[in-house]
Design a protein that fits this description.
mainly alpha; flavin adenine dinucleotide binding
Length: 86
Amino acid sequence: MSIPATTSKETPVSPSNDSAHEPFGCPTPYAEPLWYSRNVSPHHTTSHRKLRAAVRKYVDEEILPHAFDWESAGKVPDSARDVMPS
């Protein structure tokens, strides 16, 4: 279940780029960095949001299903590195 970062019906637009993005993060005050909800960072642009989404997808699909087994074994198998995106 996804929790929107804002309750506004309008998606905020950053001054650092010209495209709107989906709200991200927890709506609880100060639970996330302010740029998540206020979108005022000149450093976090659309490319950063795309990278964040790609990394989260990779972790969810390739790491999390095996994390407990790897932790129990005390080692990440070499084969796990073969599927890392370049």
